[in-house]
């Protein structure tokens, strides 16, 4: 029974991340009129670290809401479920959250396929879903519906911003290496869209299967092409491994490695040596707290609840995703779907990274993109990136509502 | 101990008993969606069991039949605009057609090689669906299979309502159970039993062993296709993972857990597996350790599966 | 096709061999367990992963990489022997389904234990200093560490061959695989032979995992992806055949490398297509005994 105890303790430790503040919320959750936010995230599987950070940050948003008196005394509660990064499991869990637990809203997910699955289930039942991971399709028809909101950036936006920076700074001869799934394809499309107007030369556009562990079969070819830039349109472990192996093959001597999204958690896990000099985009980096008061506020609350650590990029999205809905419910004075939608559409807010706005036509959050470069020898274990550029929030950088199929 | 005629009576009317159980089943479950899931996976395991339990052929490619049915149902509704019940029939046909084509290659091999050939061919199906994005949605899966209203003449049903959804699914499962018991009671059922009991003797008695196997594989595909279609309607999406080999592994586990070769074992296995997973995963993120440990315990202590052990205890 | 030169093809061939070397080590262990114990080991990927984590712990304790190459497989092999002794031993002679199911459950438990103790996100493993960088192999530069992996595979293969063919113990193992009854009658403790075989098989998996760690880092899931591939290798080579495992391992590595060159997204399909074709033409695999397990 030793393992049983151990498992239970660990679980508690994980979910209680940021829970010192959340405690009153959990205790009061017994009452019937609690505002319930379903939160399916991949606690198990390769993005477990990111998912746990999403939970920790979301708990901060809940605690803030409850500490401020909730919605006229109605407290909020976070119902965390493990979606295992599997769309079928996520759909099942979302059905359960809505039918059994009577969740008022759904927030969460960490992959394109999973968020589309969750969205499909939520929209069929008229429940608002605020997605916190990247996808172009979720804001476009036919997936989008009036209950669909997208707090995260889109691949088109991210790749566009990183492309505009990289192609003007590091050269025009480009090789793409993309993970063969929606994320990779959408990112590369985004790079190519901006690259075309900047006159880049695509030397090769290679694909690797999702979850690849060996890129050695592709690297000699890339090396022989001598590109200025190698764009690695992959994510998580795929990204860690491909960057590490590209470094081992000595690719960095001649080529700048660029990734659409450089994950804080990946960089921490893979270490400074492999990632050194790699440039990428990010929705959030704690270092912007020097210039952004709302970031400082989130970081401080997170530090207080998590032994001085700082929130990750995807973690912070968990905070923003929950907070956007709770703030809107407050403004609407209700948790009714239509009233909350009305309060969210066109809403301007600054919850953690500077000014943002939910575009009315597709419910996409218009926001800034950070361009970051991985460094070595930081002043603390958390000091891993330099912010080398910021593209301010601008709806023109998103796919237009017309292109997404909205009238 | 129950009187023997009552036991015999139960066995004779097991389909009627099962249908009666299906009616009250959702009331026993913590929530309706899990009851739906248990029925769907139970039906899938039942289709698998037809091959493994009845003929001893261990297939690792049943994901292709289940997923193929799910995609067929979704595509029939989305691309062809067929009504939902016709889409379900399409899925049954698709499951049988896929089984017929995989079986045409695989049925020549035996034992572990049969498992591996079915695995390889099913993986090929997975990759074809994965790459054929314009038809299947690729990695993002097939989405938008929204069945909301069901009109049966004057009766109007709301499929989004959890209990209605359960009974619609249960109706098809009951239909499948009736068909299965007819098959088992038919001359073909006798042939399957003969082949399982003693292959050489069956051959000597004039049974065509390979044809029996092939036909069983195709019928198995029909049940799995139906289960896939119900899954597609229930989730309103078809994830690409449905076709992945882990889905095949899952159904093997459920069938073995319940007790292979028994009539209700697959449903018991699916039920225990899904409930265990659901409850434990709410309580700890390390739910896999419990699932794994219960498999080990099951193999060591209940090698006949849960239902098989219960039946054995009854027989004593 | 831009930049496709003969040199690149040869480099790609080497890349395939390095990849194949890992497959060979895994498939050897798997084939050994199947050929001698008729155990289809679904936990083989988990033992592979444990090898990498054992290496991680040992490196953290200050051992150097060379010591880890010896110690980690011994540790994991011992763990494998414990599993054989207390779990799998009860299942011999009860068909292939039961050990298969048990090892499947075992892999869940082992992976989850690693998650509990080491977290879900995995760790990087540095290539030993002396093996860093690339070496000139006449036709171009090739990562030294990958050459080293090929070298280790050759050494292990030779050692295993000598052990099985040239030592009295190897003789007993080979005899036990052919006819355990007779061996038992001759007064040899067959149970102990099985135990050792299981230790060797899982130790080989651990060695493969340790060798792969500097290439891809560690993660609890690292074994589950490669498990399917090593099954393919084992089956293509012929279950139970050690020569088959070597030939098929290298073949699959080269096929993956060459497919990656021309159509990277097809690399994964190529593995399974290869297996389907081989099995349809030759159902027992390259070197498998016809009728085995049928």
Short summary:
The complex is a heterotrimer of chains A (407), B (316) and C (294). Chain A has 407 residues and is α/β, with parallel strands linked by helices.
Structural overview:
The complex is a heterotrimer of chains A (407), B (316) and C (294). With 407 residues, chain A is α/β, with parallel strands linked by helices. Chain A is 43% helix and 18% strand. Chain A has helices spanning 2-15, 19-28, 48-67, 87-99, 112-124, 155-169, 182-198, 219-225, 236-248, 264-270, 272-275, 293-305, 313-332, 337-344, and strands at 35-41, 76-82, 105-108, 128-131, 148-150, 173-179, 201-208, 229-233, 256-261, 279-282, 348-349, 356-358, 365-366, 369-374, 385-391. In chain A, strands 7-6-8-9-10-14-15 form a seven-stranded mixed β-sheet, sandwiched between helices. Chain A is globular. In chain B, the strands form two sheets. In chain B, strands 1-4 form a two-stranded antiparallel ribbon. Chain B has a two-stranded antiparallel ribbon with strand order 2-3. Chain B contains 15 helices and four strands. Chain B has helices spanning 4-12, 14-28, 32-55, 62-78, 84-106, 111-131, 133-136, 162-185, 187-197, 199-204, 209-235, 245-258, 265-283, 287-301, 305-315; strands at 142-143, 149-152, 155-158, 237-238. In chain B, a hairpin with a 2-residue loop joins strand 2 (149-152) and strand 3. Chain B is mostly helical. Chain B has one domain. In chain C, 55% of the residues are buried. The model of chain C has no long low-confidence stretch (mean pLDDT 85). Chain C has helices spanning 6-37, 44-60, 65-88, 97-118, 144-166, 168-178, 180-185, 190-216, 222-237, 242-262, 267-281, and strands at 134-136, 141-143. Chain C has one domain (25-237). Chains in contact: A-B, A-C, B-C. Chains A and B meet through helix 1, helix 4 and helix 5 of A and helix 3, helix 13 and helix 14 of B.
Helices and strands in order, then pairings?
The complex is a heterotrimer of chains A (407), B (316) and C (294).
Chain A: H1 2-15, H2 19-28, E1 35-41, H3 48-67, E2 76-82, H4 87-99, E3 105-108, H5 112-124, E4 128-131, E5 148-150, H6 155-169, E6 173-179, H7 182-198, E7 201-208, H8 219-225, E8 229-233, H9 236-248, E9 256-261, H10 264-270, H11 272-275, E10 279-282, H12 293-305, H13 313-332, H14 337-344, E11 348-349, E12 356-358, E13 365-366, E14 369-374, E15 385-391
Parallel strand pairs in A: 1-2, 1-3, 3-4, 4-5, 6-7, 6-8, 8-9, 9-10
Antiparallel strand pairs in A: 10-14, 11-12, 12-13, 14-15
Chain B: H1 4-12, H2 14-28, H3 32-55, H4 62-78, H5 84-106, H6 111-131, H7 133-136, E1 142-143, E2 149-152, E3 155-158, H8 162-185, H9 187-197, H10 199-204, H11 209-235, E4 237-238, H12 245-258, H13 265-283, H14 287-301, H15 305-315
Antiparallel strand pairs in B: 1-4, 2-3
Helix pairs in contact in B: 2-8, 3-8, 3-11, 3-12, 3-13, 4-5, 4-6, 4-11, 5-6, 5-11, 8-11, 9-11, 12-13, 12-15, 13-14
Chain C: H1 6-37, H2 44-60, H3 65-88, H4 97-118, E1 134-136, E2 141-143, H5 144-166, H6 168-178, H7 180-185, H8 190-216, H9 222-237, H10 242-262, H11 267-281
Antiparallel strand pairs in C: 1-2
Helix pairs in contact in C: 1-5, 1-8, 1-9, 1-10, 2-3, 2-4, 2-8, 2-9, 3-8, 5-6, 9-10, 9-11, 10-11
């Amino acid at each position: 029974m030793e393992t049983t105890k151990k498992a239970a303790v660990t679980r508690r430790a994980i979910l209680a991340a940021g829970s010192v503040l959340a405690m009153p919320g959990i205790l009061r959750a017994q009452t019937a009129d609690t505002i319930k936010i379903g939160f399916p995230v991949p606690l198990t599987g390769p993005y477990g670290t990111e998912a746990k950070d999403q939970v920790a940050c979301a708990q901060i948003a809940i605690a803030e809401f409850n500490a401020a008196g909730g919605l006229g005394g109605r407290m909020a509660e976070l119902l965390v479920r493990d979606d295992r990064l599997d769309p079928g499991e996520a759909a099942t869990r979302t059905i359960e959250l809505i039918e059994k637990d009577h969740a008022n809203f759904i927030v969460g997910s960490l992959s394109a396929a999973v968020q589309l699955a969750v969205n499909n289930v939520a929209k069929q039942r008229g429940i608002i879903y605020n997605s916190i991971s990247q996808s172009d399709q979720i804001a476009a028809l036919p997936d989008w519906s009036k209950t669909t909101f997208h707090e995260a950036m889109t691949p088109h936006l991210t790749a566009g911003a990183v492309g505009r920076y990289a192609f003007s700074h590091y050269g025009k001869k480009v090789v793409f290496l993309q993970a063969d799934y929606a994320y990779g394809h959408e990112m590369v499309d985004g790079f190519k869209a901006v690259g075309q107007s900047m006159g880049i030369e695509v030397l090769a556009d290679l694909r690797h299967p999702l979850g690849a562990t060996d890129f050695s079969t592709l690297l000699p070819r890339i090396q022989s092409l001598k590109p200025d830039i190698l764009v690695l349109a992959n994510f998580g472990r795929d990204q860690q491994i491909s960057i590490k192996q590209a470094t081992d093959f000595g690719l960095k001597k001649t080529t700048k490695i660029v990734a659409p999204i450089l994950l804080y958690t990946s960089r921490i896990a893979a270490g400074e040596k492999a990632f050194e000099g790699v440039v990428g985009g990010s929705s959030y980096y704690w270092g912007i707290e020097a210039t952004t008061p709302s970031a400082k506020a989130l970081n401080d609350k997170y530090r207080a609840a998590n032994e001085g650590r700082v929130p990750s990029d995807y973690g912070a999205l968990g905070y923003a995703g929950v907070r956007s809905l709770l703030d809107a419910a407050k403004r609407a004075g209700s948790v009714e779907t239509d009233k909350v939608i009305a309060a969210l559409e066109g809403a301007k807010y600054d919850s953690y990274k500077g000014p943002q706005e939910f575009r009315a036509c597709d419910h996409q959050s218009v926001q800034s993109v950070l361009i970051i470069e991985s460094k070595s020898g930081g002043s603390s274990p958390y000091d891993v990136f330099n912010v080398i550029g910021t593209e301010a929030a601008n709806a023109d950088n998103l796919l237009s509502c017309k292109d997404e199929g909205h009238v | 101990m129950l009187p023997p005629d009552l036991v015999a009576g139960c066995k004779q009317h097991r389909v009627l008993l099962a249908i009666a159980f299906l009616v009250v089943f959702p009331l026993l479950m913590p929530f309706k969606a899990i009851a739906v899931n248990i029925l769907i996976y139970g039906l899938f395991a039942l289709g698998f069991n037809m091959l493994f339990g009845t003929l001893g052929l261990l297939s690792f490619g049943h994901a292709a039949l289940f997923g193929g049915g799910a995609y067929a149902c979704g595509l029939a509704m989305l691309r062809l605009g067929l009504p939902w019940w016709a889409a379900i029939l399409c899925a049954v046909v698709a499951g049988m057609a896929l089984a017929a084509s995989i079986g045409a290659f695989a049925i020549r091999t035996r034992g572990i090689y049969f498992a591996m050939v079915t695995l390889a061919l099913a993986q090929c199906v997975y990759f074809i669906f994965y790459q054929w994005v314009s038809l299947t949605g690729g990695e993002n899966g097939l989405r938008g299979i929204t069945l909301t209203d069901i009109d049966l003449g004057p009766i109007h049903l709301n499929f989004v309502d959890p209990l209605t959804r359960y009974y619609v699914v249960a109706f098809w499962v009951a239909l499948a159970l009736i068909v299965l018991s007819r098959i088992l009671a038919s001359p073909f059922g006798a042939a399957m039993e003969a082949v399982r009991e003693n292959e050489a003797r069956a051959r000597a008695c004039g049974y065509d062993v390979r044809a029996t196997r092939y036909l069983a594989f195709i019928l198995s595909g029909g049940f799995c296709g139906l289960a896939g279609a119900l899954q597609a309607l229930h989730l309103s999406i078809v994830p690409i993972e449905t076709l992945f080999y882990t889905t095949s592994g899952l159904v093997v586990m459920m069938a073995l857990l319940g007790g292979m070769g028994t009539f209700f074992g697959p449903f018991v296995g699916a039920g225990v597996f899904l409930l265990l997973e659901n409850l434990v995963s709410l309580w700890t993120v390390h739910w896999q350790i419990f699932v794994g440990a219960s498999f080990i315990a099951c193999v060591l202590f209940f090698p006949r599966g849960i239902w098989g052990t219960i039946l054995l205890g009854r027989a004593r | 096709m831009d930049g496709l030169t003969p040199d690149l093809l040869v480099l790609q061939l080497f890349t395939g061999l390095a990849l194949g070397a890992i497959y060979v080590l895994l498939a050897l262990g798997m084939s050994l367990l199947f050929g001698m114990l008729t155990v289809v080991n679904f936990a083989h990927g988990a033992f592979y992963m444990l090898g990498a984590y054992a290496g991680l712990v040992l490196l953290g304790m200050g051992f150097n990489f060379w010591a880890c190459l010896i110690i980690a497989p011994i540790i994991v092999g011992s763990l494998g022997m414990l599993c054989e002794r207390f779990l799998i031993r009860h299942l011999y002679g009860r068909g292939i389904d039961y050990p298969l199911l048990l090892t499947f459950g075992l892999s869940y438990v082992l992976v989850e234990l690693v998650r509990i103790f080491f977290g879900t996100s995995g760790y990087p493993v540095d290539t030993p200093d002396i093996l860093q960088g690339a070496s000139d192999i006449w036709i171009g530069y090739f990562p030294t560490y990958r050459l080293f992996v090929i070298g280790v595979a050759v050494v292990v293969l030779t050692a295993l061959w000598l052990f099985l063919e040239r030592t009295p113990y190897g003789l007993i193992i080979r005899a036990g695989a052919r006819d355990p009854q007779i061996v038992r009658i001759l007064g040899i403790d067959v149970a102990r032979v099985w135990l050792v075989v299981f230790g060797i098989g899982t130790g080989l998996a651990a060695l493969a995992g340790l060798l792969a760690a500097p290439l891809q880092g560690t993660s609890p899931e690292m074994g589950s992806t490669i498990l399917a591939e090593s099954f393919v290798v084992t089956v293509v080579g012929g279950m139970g055949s050690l020569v088959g495992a070597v030939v098929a391992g290298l073949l699959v590595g080269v096929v993956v490398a060459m497919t990656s060159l021309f159509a990277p997204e097809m690399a994964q399909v190529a593995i399974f297509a290869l297996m389907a074709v081989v099995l349809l033409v030759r159902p027992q695999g390259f070197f498998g005994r016809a009728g085995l397990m049928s």
